[in-house]
Amino acid sequence: MMRVLHRHAAMPEPCILAIDNGTQSVRALLFDTRGELVAKAQVPLQAYYADHPGWAEHKAEDYWEAVCEACRRLWLIAPAARGRVAGVAVTTQRGTVVNVDAQGRPLRPAITWLDQRRTNLAQVPRVGPLWRAGFRLARVDGTLRYFQREAEINWIAAHEPEIWQRTHKFLLLSGYLNFQLCGRFVDSTGSQVGYVPFDYRRHRWAGARDWKWQALAIRPGMLPALAPPGTVIGAITPAAAAASGIPAGLPLVAAAADKACEVIGSGALAPHIGCLSYGTTATINTTSTKYVEVTRFIPPYPAALPGAWSTEVQILRGYWMVNWFKEQFGDRELAAATEHGLAPEALFDRLVETVPPGSMGLMLQPYWSPGIRVPGPEAKGAMIGFGDVHTRAHMYRAILEGLAYALREGRERIERRSGTRITELRVAGGGSQSNAAMQLTADIFGLTAVRAHVHEASGLGAAIAGAVGLGLHRDFATAVAAMTRPGRAFAPDAANRRLYDQLYRRVYLKMYGRLRPLYEDIAAITGYPPRP
User: Fold this and answer.
1) Which residues contact 394 (CB under 8 A, 6 or more apart)?
2) What string of DSSP letters covers 130-182?
3) Distance between CA atoms of 180 and 241, rounded to whole angstroms?
4) CA-closest candidate to residue 18, choices 460, 455, 428, 476
5) Which of 3, 65, 188, 389 maximizes the CB count within 10 A of its CB?
6) Model pTM score
7) If you write DSSP's letter for every residue of 337-404 in order, what string do you get?
8) What is the pLDDT of residues 148-161, one digit of tens each?
Protein backbone atom coordinates (compact mmCIF):
# COMPACT_ATOMS: atom_id res chain seq x y z
CA MET A 1 0.00 0.00 0.00
CA MET A 2 1.31 3.46 -0.88
CA ARG A 3 -0.10 6.86 -0.04
CA VAL A 4 1.10 9.87 -2.00
CA LEU A 5 0.44 13.57 -2.07
CA HIS A 6 1.38 15.88 -4.93
CA ARG A 7 0.49 19.54 -4.77
CA HIS A 8 2.61 21.36 -7.28
CA ALA A 9 3.83 20.27 -10.68
CA ALA A 10 6.70 22.75 -10.58
CA MET A 11 8.69 24.09 -7.68
CA PRO A 12 10.08 27.62 -7.95
CA GLU A 13 12.44 27.25 -5.01
CA PRO A 14 14.70 24.69 -3.31
CA CYS A 15 13.17 21.89 -1.27
CA ILE A 16 14.40 19.74 1.60
CA LEU A 17 13.92 15.98 1.54
CA ALA A 18 12.93 14.80 5.02
CA ILE A 19 13.06 11.06 5.65
CA ASP A 20 10.86 10.09 8.60
CA ASN A 21 11.28 6.47 9.74
CA GLY A 22 8.53 5.90 12.28
CA THR A 23 7.26 2.77 13.98
CA GLN A 24 4.53 1.99 11.49
CA SER A 25 5.81 3.51 8.25
CA VAL A 26 8.58 5.37 6.44
CA ARG A 27 7.77 8.67 4.76
CA ALA A 28 9.76 10.55 2.14
CA LEU A 29 8.63 14.16 2.40
CA LEU A 30 9.48 17.23 0.35
CA PHE A 31 9.07 20.59 2.08
CA ASP A 32 9.69 24.04 0.67
CA THR A 33 11.24 26.87 2.67
CA ARG A 34 7.77 28.06 3.78
CA GLY A 35 7.05 24.69 5.41
CA GLU A 36 4.54 23.58 2.79
CA LEU A 37 4.41 19.85 2.09
CA VAL A 38 5.07 19.67 -1.64
CA ALA A 39 5.06 15.90 -2.15
CA LYS A 40 4.91 12.76 -0.04
CA ALA A 41 5.34 9.02 -0.41
CA GLN A 42 4.69 6.57 2.40
CA VAL A 43 5.68 2.92 2.74
CA PRO A 44 4.10 0.93 5.59
CA LEU A 45 6.45 -1.16 7.70
CA GLN A 46 5.82 -4.76 8.55
CA ALA A 47 5.06 -5.18 12.22
CA TYR A 48 7.94 -6.14 14.47
CA TYR A 49 8.37 -9.82 15.17
CA ALA A 50 8.97 -11.58 18.47
CA ASP A 51 10.85 -14.87 18.75
CA HIS A 52 10.20 -14.78 22.49
CA PRO A 53 7.50 -13.13 24.64
CA GLY A 54 8.19 -9.45 25.13
CA TRP A 55 10.73 -9.19 22.32
CA ALA A 56 10.26 -6.74 19.45
CA GLU A 57 12.77 -6.98 16.60
CA HIS A 58 12.86 -5.78 13.01
CA LYS A 59 15.30 -6.45 10.19
CA ALA A 60 17.47 -3.36 9.93
CA GLU A 61 17.91 -3.91 6.19
CA ASP A 62 14.15 -3.62 5.79
CA TYR A 63 14.19 -0.13 7.28
CA TRP A 64 16.73 0.94 4.67
CA GLU A 65 14.85 -0.73 1.85
CA ALA A 66 11.65 1.05 2.94
CA VAL A 67 13.53 4.38 2.85
CA CYS A 68 14.72 3.64 -0.68
CA GLU A 69 11.28 2.51 -1.79
CA ALA A 70 9.63 5.65 -0.40
CA CYS A 71 12.15 7.85 -2.21
CA ARG A 72 11.78 5.98 -5.50
CA ARG A 73 8.01 6.41 -5.31
CA LEU A 74 8.44 10.08 -4.52
CA TRP A 75 10.40 10.68 -7.73
CA LEU A 76 7.73 8.84 -9.72
CA ILE A 77 4.96 11.15 -8.51
CA ALA A 78 7.03 14.35 -8.42
CA PRO A 79 9.71 13.91 -11.09
CA ALA A 80 10.37 17.63 -11.46
CA ALA A 81 11.03 17.94 -7.74
CA ARG A 82 14.07 15.69 -7.77
CA GLY A 83 16.26 18.31 -9.39
CA ARG A 84 15.22 20.99 -6.87
CA VAL A 85 16.18 19.08 -3.72
CA ALA A 86 18.89 21.02 -1.89
CA GLY A 87 19.63 18.45 0.81
CA VAL A 88 18.41 15.61 3.00
CA ALA A 89 17.63 15.24 6.73
CA VAL A 90 16.67 12.10 8.66
CA THR A 91 14.42 11.68 11.69
CA THR A 92 13.54 8.30 13.18
CA GLN A 93 11.78 6.51 16.00
CA ARG A 94 13.76 6.66 19.21
CA GLY A 95 15.59 3.92 21.06
CA THR A 96 15.80 1.35 18.22
CA VAL A 97 19.35 -0.03 18.01
CA VAL A 98 21.47 -1.73 15.35
CA ASN A 99 24.78 -3.62 15.65
CA VAL A 100 26.92 -3.34 12.51
CA ASP A 101 30.30 -4.56 11.31
CA ALA A 102 33.07 -2.37 9.88
CA GLN A 103 31.26 -2.22 6.52
CA GLY A 104 28.04 -1.08 8.19
CA ARG A 105 26.27 -4.42 7.67
CA PRO A 106 23.81 -5.37 10.43
CA LEU A 107 24.95 -8.32 12.53
CA ARG A 108 21.55 -9.09 14.01
CA PRO A 109 18.01 -7.73 13.78
CA ALA A 110 17.39 -4.27 15.20
CA ILE A 111 15.99 -4.27 18.71
CA THR A 112 13.11 -1.79 18.62
CA TRP A 113 12.03 0.61 21.32
CA LEU A 114 8.99 -1.61 21.99
CA ASP A 115 11.21 -4.49 23.13
CA GLN A 116 10.75 -5.51 26.78
CA ARG A 117 13.60 -7.95 27.37
CA ARG A 118 15.73 -7.39 30.43
CA THR A 119 19.15 -8.52 31.54
CA ASN A 120 19.57 -10.29 34.85
CA LEU A 121 21.56 -8.11 37.22
CA ALA A 122 24.01 -10.96 37.72
CA GLN A 123 24.98 -10.57 34.05
CA VAL A 124 25.53 -6.80 33.86
CA PRO A 125 28.85 -5.00 34.40
CA ARG A 126 29.66 -4.09 37.98
CA VAL A 127 29.61 -0.38 38.81
CA GLY A 128 32.39 0.80 41.10
CA PRO A 129 31.77 1.18 44.86
CA LEU A 130 31.96 4.98 44.86
CA TRP A 131 29.28 5.33 42.21
CA ARG A 132 27.11 2.69 43.90
CA ALA A 133 27.40 4.55 47.20
CA GLY A 134 26.47 7.81 45.50
CA PHE A 135 23.35 6.31 43.95
CA ARG A 136 22.34 4.82 47.31
CA LEU A 137 22.81 8.14 49.10
CA ALA A 138 20.66 9.85 46.48
CA ARG A 139 18.10 7.04 46.89
CA VAL A 140 18.13 6.33 43.16
CA ASP A 141 20.01 3.01 43.14
CA GLY A 142 16.84 1.51 41.68
CA THR A 143 17.23 3.83 38.69
CA LEU A 144 20.78 2.55 38.15
CA ARG A 145 19.58 -1.06 38.25
CA TYR A 146 16.74 -0.23 35.86
CA PHE A 147 19.18 1.39 33.40
CA GLN A 148 21.46 -1.65 33.45
CA ARG A 149 18.61 -4.14 33.07
CA GLU A 150 16.95 -2.28 30.21
CA ALA A 151 20.10 -1.52 28.19
CA GLU A 152 20.21 -3.52 24.96
CA ILE A 153 24.00 -3.24 25.09
CA ASN A 154 24.13 -5.35 28.23
CA TRP A 155 21.66 -7.94 26.93
CA ILE A 156 23.55 -8.51 23.68
CA ALA A 157 26.91 -8.64 25.45
CA ALA A 158 25.56 -11.21 27.94
CA HIS A 159 23.44 -13.38 25.64
CA GLU A 160 25.10 -12.99 22.23
CA PRO A 161 28.81 -12.51 23.05
CA GLU A 162 29.93 -13.59 19.59
CA ILE A 163 27.75 -10.87 18.03
CA TRP A 164 29.06 -8.33 20.51
CA GLN A 165 32.68 -9.25 19.75
CA ARG A 166 32.05 -8.70 16.03
CA THR A 167 30.24 -5.38 16.57
CA HIS A 168 32.21 -2.51 15.08
CA LYS A 169 29.60 0.17 15.83
CA PHE A 170 26.52 0.21 18.02
CA LEU A 171 24.06 2.62 16.38
CA LEU A 172 20.63 4.01 16.89
CA LEU A 173 18.39 3.64 13.84
CA SER A 174 19.14 7.24 12.86
CA GLY A 175 22.88 6.51 12.84
CA TYR A 176 22.33 3.40 10.73
CA LEU A 177 20.32 5.31 8.11
CA ASN A 178 22.86 8.14 8.10
CA PHE A 179 25.59 5.59 7.35
CA GLN A 180 23.56 4.07 4.54
CA LEU A 181 23.09 7.53 3.02
CA CYS A 182 26.54 9.09 3.42
CA GLY A 183 28.92 6.22 4.27
CA ARG A 184 30.00 7.76 7.60
CA PHE A 185 29.31 6.55 11.12
CA VAL A 186 27.80 9.79 12.36
CA ASP A 187 24.62 10.77 14.16
CA SER A 188 22.89 13.82 15.58
CA THR A 189 23.14 14.77 19.23
CA GLY A 190 19.40 15.39 18.95
CA SER A 191 18.78 11.70 18.22
CA GLN A 192 20.49 10.26 21.31
CA VAL A 193 17.55 8.85 23.19
CA GLY A 194 18.28 5.39 24.54
CA TYR A 195 20.38 3.37 26.94
CA VAL A 196 23.70 4.66 25.66
CA PRO A 197 26.58 6.47 27.42
CA PHE A 198 25.41 9.94 26.43
CA ASP A 199 25.94 13.06 28.55
CA TYR A 200 22.50 14.67 28.39
CA ARG A 201 23.67 17.83 30.12
CA ARG A 202 26.52 18.56 27.68
CA HIS A 203 25.15 16.83 24.55
CA ARG A 204 28.19 14.65 23.91
CA TRP A 205 29.36 11.17 24.72
CA ALA A 206 29.93 10.73 28.44
CA GLY A 207 33.31 11.61 29.89
CA ALA A 208 35.85 8.94 30.71
CA ARG A 209 34.94 8.88 34.42
CA ASP A 210 31.18 8.82 33.93
CA TRP A 211 29.33 5.92 35.62
CA LYS A 212 27.66 4.92 32.33
CA TRP A 213 30.92 3.42 31.05
CA GLN A 214 30.94 1.15 34.08
CA ALA A 215 27.22 0.33 33.81
CA LEU A 216 27.34 -0.62 30.11
CA ALA A 217 29.47 -3.23 28.33
CA ILE A 218 30.60 -0.87 25.58
CA ARG A 219 33.81 0.91 24.53
CA PRO A 220 33.99 4.50 23.20
CA GLY A 221 35.23 3.35 19.79
CA MET A 222 31.99 1.44 19.22
CA LEU A 223 29.95 4.67 19.03
CA PRO A 224 29.49 7.03 16.07
CA ALA A 225 30.69 10.61 15.79
CA LEU A 226 28.14 13.20 16.93
CA ALA A 227 27.06 16.52 15.41
CA PRO A 228 24.43 19.04 16.54
CA PRO A 229 21.17 19.45 14.60
CA GLY A 230 21.52 21.72 11.59
CA THR A 231 25.05 20.50 10.79
CA VAL A 232 26.05 19.02 7.42
CA ILE A 233 27.37 15.55 8.30
CA GLY A 234 28.10 14.10 4.87
CA ALA A 235 27.00 13.73 1.27
CA ILE A 236 24.78 11.18 -0.46
CA THR A 237 27.01 8.42 -1.82
CA PRO A 238 26.72 6.98 -5.34
CA ALA A 239 25.57 3.67 -3.82
CA ALA A 240 22.81 5.37 -1.84
CA ALA A 241 21.83 7.38 -4.93
CA ALA A 242 21.54 4.20 -7.01
CA ALA A 243 19.34 2.55 -4.37
CA SER A 244 17.09 5.50 -3.53
CA GLY A 245 17.19 7.86 -6.49
CA ILE A 246 18.36 10.72 -4.26
CA PRO A 247 20.91 12.67 -6.33
CA ALA A 248 24.48 11.77 -5.40
CA GLY A 249 26.49 14.44 -3.64
CA LEU A 250 23.55 16.18 -1.96
CA PRO A 251 24.35 17.33 1.60
CA LEU A 252 23.04 15.22 4.48
CA VAL A 253 22.10 17.38 7.47
CA ALA A 254 21.78 16.22 11.09
CA ALA A 255 18.20 16.55 12.37
CA ALA A 256 16.92 14.93 15.60
CA ALA A 257 14.67 12.16 16.91
CA ASP A 258 11.05 12.17 15.76
CA LYS A 259 9.54 13.59 18.96
CA ALA A 260 12.11 16.38 19.11
CA CYS A 261 11.48 17.21 15.45
CA GLU A 262 7.74 17.13 16.06
CA VAL A 263 8.11 19.80 18.74
CA ILE A 264 9.81 22.36 16.49
CA GLY A 265 7.67 21.25 13.54
CA SER A 266 4.67 22.33 15.62
CA GLY A 267 6.22 25.71 16.32
CA ALA A 268 6.89 24.98 20.01
CA LEU A 269 10.21 26.75 20.40
CA ALA A 270 9.59 28.48 23.74
CA PRO A 271 9.11 26.95 27.22
CA HIS A 272 5.58 28.36 27.63
CA ILE A 273 4.38 26.37 24.59
CA GLY A 274 3.53 22.74 25.26
CA CYS A 275 3.62 20.29 22.37
CA LEU A 276 1.40 17.24 22.71
CA SER A 277 2.33 14.35 20.47
CA TYR A 278 -0.49 11.91 19.90
CA GLY A 279 1.57 9.09 18.43
CA THR A 280 2.36 5.49 19.35
CA THR A 281 3.96 7.03 22.43
CA ALA A 282 2.01 10.05 23.66
CA THR A 283 4.12 12.89 25.03
CA ILE A 284 4.05 16.43 26.26
CA ASN A 285 7.19 18.46 25.58
CA THR A 286 8.47 21.96 25.94
CA THR A 287 11.69 23.33 24.49
CA SER A 288 13.99 24.75 27.14
CA THR A 289 17.44 26.30 26.99
CA LYS A 290 17.71 25.44 30.70
CA TYR A 291 18.56 21.91 31.88
CA VAL A 292 15.47 20.73 33.81
CA GLU A 293 14.87 17.22 35.15
CA VAL A 294 11.08 16.84 35.18
CA THR A 295 11.60 13.65 37.18
CA ARG A 296 14.60 13.96 39.48
CA PHE A 297 17.71 12.15 38.23
CA ILE A 298 16.02 11.37 34.90
CA PRO A 299 17.72 13.66 32.36
CA PRO A 300 15.78 15.65 29.76
CA TYR A 301 16.26 14.52 26.17
CA PRO A 302 18.13 16.68 23.68
CA ALA A 303 15.91 18.99 21.64
CA ALA A 304 16.06 19.53 17.89
CA LEU A 305 17.35 23.00 18.74
CA PRO A 306 21.13 22.80 19.33
CA GLY A 307 22.09 23.21 22.97
CA ALA A 308 18.48 22.94 24.19
CA TRP A 309 16.44 20.25 25.92
CA SER A 310 12.98 18.73 25.65
CA THR A 311 11.29 18.66 29.05
CA GLU A 312 9.26 15.58 28.24
CA VAL A 313 6.70 13.43 30.00
CA GLN A 314 5.67 10.35 28.05
CA ILE A 315 2.92 7.76 28.08
CA LEU A 316 4.68 4.79 26.51
CA ARG A 317 1.66 3.07 25.00
CA GLY A 318 -0.15 6.34 24.25
CA TYR A 319 -2.08 6.23 21.01
CA TRP A 320 -1.08 2.62 20.62
CA MET A 321 -4.11 2.08 22.87
CA VAL A 322 -6.32 3.79 20.31
CA ASN A 323 -5.11 1.42 17.61
CA TRP A 324 -5.54 -1.49 20.04
CA PHE A 325 -9.17 -0.49 20.56
CA LYS A 326 -9.78 -0.19 16.84
CA GLU A 327 -8.30 -3.64 16.20
CA GLN A 328 -10.17 -5.31 19.05
CA PHE A 329 -13.52 -3.49 19.06
CA GLY A 330 -13.73 -1.32 15.95
CA ASP A 331 -14.49 -3.89 13.28
CA ARG A 332 -17.86 -2.28 12.46
CA GLU A 333 -16.36 1.14 11.77
CA LEU A 334 -13.45 -0.31 9.84
CA ALA A 335 -15.78 -2.39 7.67
CA ALA A 336 -18.13 0.55 7.07
CA ALA A 337 -15.25 2.81 6.14
CA THR A 338 -14.01 0.29 3.58
CA GLU A 339 -17.50 -0.23 2.17
CA HIS A 340 -18.29 3.47 1.78
CA GLY A 341 -14.80 4.73 0.97
CA LEU A 342 -14.56 6.81 4.13
CA ALA A 343 -11.68 7.52 6.46
CA PRO A 344 -12.06 5.24 9.53
CA GLU A 345 -11.09 8.16 11.79
CA ALA A 346 -14.27 10.03 10.85
CA LEU A 347 -16.41 7.10 11.97
CA PHE A 348 -14.50 6.74 15.24
CA ASP A 349 -15.01 10.45 15.89
CA ARG A 350 -18.74 9.86 15.53
CA LEU A 351 -18.44 7.07 18.07
CA VAL A 352 -16.83 9.46 20.56
CA GLU A 353 -19.48 12.09 19.98
CA THR A 354 -22.26 9.69 21.02
CA VAL A 355 -20.86 9.74 24.57
CA PRO A 356 -21.04 12.75 26.92
CA PRO A 357 -17.86 14.30 28.34
CA GLY A 358 -16.62 12.25 31.28
CA SER A 359 -17.81 8.98 29.68
CA MET A 360 -20.54 8.70 32.34
CA GLY A 361 -17.95 8.02 35.02
CA LEU A 362 -15.71 5.59 33.17
CA MET A 363 -12.08 6.53 33.94
CA LEU A 364 -8.87 5.23 32.40
CA GLN A 365 -5.33 5.23 33.81
CA PRO A 366 -3.17 4.68 30.70
CA TYR A 367 -0.16 2.89 32.19
CA TRP A 368 -0.26 -0.04 29.78
CA SER A 369 3.54 -0.15 29.98
CA PRO A 370 5.49 0.35 33.22
CA GLY A 371 7.80 3.29 33.75
CA ILE A 372 10.98 4.05 35.65
CA ARG A 373 9.82 6.21 38.55
CA VAL A 374 6.56 8.03 37.66
CA PRO A 375 4.90 5.64 37.12
CA GLY A 376 7.11 2.95 38.58
CA PRO A 377 8.00 -0.48 37.19
CA GLU A 378 4.99 -2.06 38.90
CA ALA A 379 2.47 0.12 37.05
CA LYS A 380 -0.40 -1.34 35.07
CA GLY A 381 -3.34 0.12 33.22
CA ALA A 382 -6.76 0.43 34.78
CA MET A 383 -10.29 1.34 33.82
CA ILE A 384 -12.74 1.97 36.66
CA GLY A 385 -16.33 3.10 37.06
CA PHE A 386 -18.08 0.53 34.87
CA GLY A 387 -21.87 0.37 34.93
CA ASP A 388 -24.58 -1.22 32.83
CA VAL A 389 -24.88 1.96 30.76
CA HIS A 390 -21.39 1.64 29.34
CA THR A 391 -20.66 0.50 25.80
CA ARG A 392 -17.57 0.24 23.65
CA ALA A 393 -18.15 3.88 22.69
CA HIS A 394 -17.72 4.86 26.34
CA MET A 395 -14.53 2.80 26.47
CA TYR A 396 -13.16 4.56 23.42
CA ARG A 397 -13.87 8.02 24.77
CA ALA A 398 -12.45 7.02 28.17
CA ILE A 399 -9.18 6.03 26.45
CA LEU A 400 -8.89 9.44 24.80
CA GLU A 401 -9.78 11.21 28.04
CA GLY A 402 -7.36 9.10 30.09
CA LEU A 403 -4.47 9.97 27.79
CA ALA A 404 -5.33 13.67 28.07
CA TYR A 405 -5.53 13.42 31.88
CA ALA A 406 -2.09 11.78 31.98
CA LEU A 407 -0.60 14.46 29.75
CA ARG A 408 -2.20 17.21 31.83
CA GLU A 409 -0.51 15.69 34.88
CA GLY A 410 2.72 15.78 32.87
CA ARG A 411 2.13 19.45 32.10
CA GLU A 412 1.82 20.22 35.81
CA ARG A 413 5.01 18.32 36.61
CA ILE A 414 6.88 20.27 33.93
CA GLU A 415 5.53 23.55 35.29
CA ARG A 416 6.54 22.72 38.87
CA ARG A 417 10.07 21.70 37.92
CA SER A 418 10.73 24.41 35.33
CA GLY A 419 8.99 27.31 37.03
CA THR A 420 7.37 28.25 33.73
CA ARG A 421 3.63 28.02 33.09
CA ILE A 422 2.49 26.37 29.88
CA THR A 423 -0.02 28.78 28.37
CA GLU A 424 -0.24 27.52 24.79
CA LEU A 425 -0.80 24.05 23.33
CA ARG A 426 0.29 22.62 19.99
CA VAL A 427 -0.88 19.12 19.06
CA ALA A 428 0.76 16.83 16.50
CA GLY A 429 0.90 13.13 15.65
CA GLY A 430 -1.69 10.84 14.12
CA GLY A 431 -4.20 11.35 16.93
CA SER A 432 -4.24 15.10 16.30
CA GLN A 433 -6.30 14.47 13.17
CA SER A 434 -9.28 13.54 15.35
CA ASN A 435 -11.49 16.58 15.99
CA ALA A 436 -13.02 14.80 18.97
CA ALA A 437 -9.60 14.16 20.51
CA MET A 438 -8.59 17.78 19.92
CA GLN A 439 -11.75 19.13 21.57
CA LEU A 440 -11.57 16.98 24.68
CA THR A 441 -7.87 17.84 24.98
CA ALA A 442 -8.76 21.55 25.03
CA ASP A 443 -11.49 20.88 27.59
CA ILE A 444 -9.27 18.81 29.91
CA PHE A 445 -6.30 21.20 29.74
CA GLY A 446 -8.46 24.31 29.88
CA LEU A 447 -6.40 25.76 27.03
CA THR A 448 -6.99 26.30 23.34
CA ALA A 449 -5.49 23.30 21.54
CA VAL A 450 -3.97 24.18 18.18
CA ARG A 451 -3.31 21.55 15.54
CA ALA A 452 -0.01 21.76 13.65
CA HIS A 453 -0.56 23.20 10.17
CA VAL A 454 0.70 19.98 8.57
CA HIS A 455 0.11 16.43 9.71
CA GLU A 456 3.77 15.50 9.12
CA ALA A 457 5.15 17.63 11.94
CA SER A 458 8.15 15.41 12.70
CA GLY A 459 9.16 15.44 9.04
CA LEU A 460 8.74 19.22 9.00
CA GLY A 461 11.01 19.48 12.04
CA ALA A 462 13.68 17.53 10.18
CA ALA A 463 13.22 19.81 7.18
CA ILE A 464 13.66 22.84 9.45
CA ALA A 465 17.01 21.43 10.61
CA GLY A 466 17.86 20.78 6.97
CA ALA A 467 16.96 24.32 5.94
CA VAL A 468 19.23 25.75 8.64
CA GLY A 469 22.13 23.44 7.74
CA LEU A 470 21.78 24.32 4.06
CA GLY A 471 21.67 28.05 4.73
CA LEU A 472 18.12 28.41 3.41
CA HIS A 473 17.24 30.05 6.73
CA ARG A 474 19.84 31.75 8.88
CA ASP A 475 18.97 30.03 12.19
CA PHE A 476 16.38 27.83 13.90
CA ALA A 477 14.27 30.71 15.19
CA THR A 478 13.98 32.15 11.69
CA ALA A 479 13.28 28.74 10.16
CA VAL A 480 10.58 27.86 12.70
CA ALA A 481 8.93 31.27 12.22
CA ALA A 482 8.95 30.87 8.43
CA MET A 483 8.04 27.19 8.19
CA THR A 484 5.40 26.67 10.91
CA ARG A 485 2.05 28.31 11.61
CA PRO A 486 -1.06 27.47 13.62
CA GLY A 487 -3.61 25.13 12.11
CA ARG A 488 -7.17 24.70 13.32
CA ALA A 489 -7.74 25.81 16.91
CA PHE A 490 -10.11 24.15 19.41
CA ALA A 491 -11.24 26.37 22.31
CA PRO A 492 -12.29 24.76 25.60
CA ASP A 493 -15.99 24.52 26.43
CA ALA A 494 -16.59 26.10 29.85
CA ALA A 495 -19.06 23.47 31.13
CA ASN A 496 -16.94 20.56 29.93
CA ARG A 497 -13.86 22.16 31.45
CA ARG A 498 -15.51 22.30 34.89
CA LEU A 499 -16.61 18.66 34.69
CA TYR A 500 -13.21 17.43 33.58
CA ASP A 501 -11.41 19.50 36.21
CA GLN A 502 -13.38 17.79 38.98
CA LEU A 503 -12.82 14.32 37.53
CA TYR A 504 -9.13 15.04 37.11
CA ARG A 505 -8.51 16.44 40.59
CA ARG A 506 -10.88 14.30 42.63
CA VAL A 507 -10.47 10.99 40.80
CA TYR A 508 -7.67 10.72 38.24
CA LEU A 509 -4.87 12.15 40.40
CA LYS A 510 -5.71 9.64 43.16
CA MET A 511 -5.94 6.52 40.98
CA TYR A 512 -2.28 5.56 40.73
CA GLY A 513 -1.50 6.02 44.42
CA ARG A 514 -4.46 3.92 45.51
CA LEU A 515 -3.97 1.20 42.91
CA ARG A 516 -0.19 0.93 43.24
CA PRO A 517 -0.23 -1.58 46.15
CA LEU A 518 -2.65 -3.74 44.17
CA TYR A 519 -0.36 -3.65 41.12
CA GLU A 520 2.52 -4.84 43.30
CA ASP A 521 0.39 -7.68 44.65
CA ILE A 522 -0.71 -8.68 41.14
CA ALA A 523 2.92 -8.88 40.01
CA ALA A 524 3.91 -10.90 43.08
CA ILE A 525 1.04 -13.37 42.63
CA THR A 526 1.06 -13.82 38.86
CA GLY A 527 4.74 -13.25 38.10
CA TYR A 528 3.82 -10.69 35.46
CA PRO A 529 5.67 -8.60 34.63
CA PRO A 530 8.55 -10.99 35.39
CA ARG A 531 11.31 -9.76 37.63
CA PRO A 532 14.89 -10.33 36.40
Assistant:
1) 355, 359, 360, 362
2) HHHHHHHHTT-HHHHHHHHHH-HHHHHHHH-HHHHHH-SEEEEHHHHHHHHHH
3) 10
4) 460
5) 188
6) 0.92
7) HHHHT--HHHHHHHHHHTS-TTGGG-EEE--SS--SSSS-TT---EEE---TT--HHHHHHHHHHHHH
8) 999 999 999 999 99
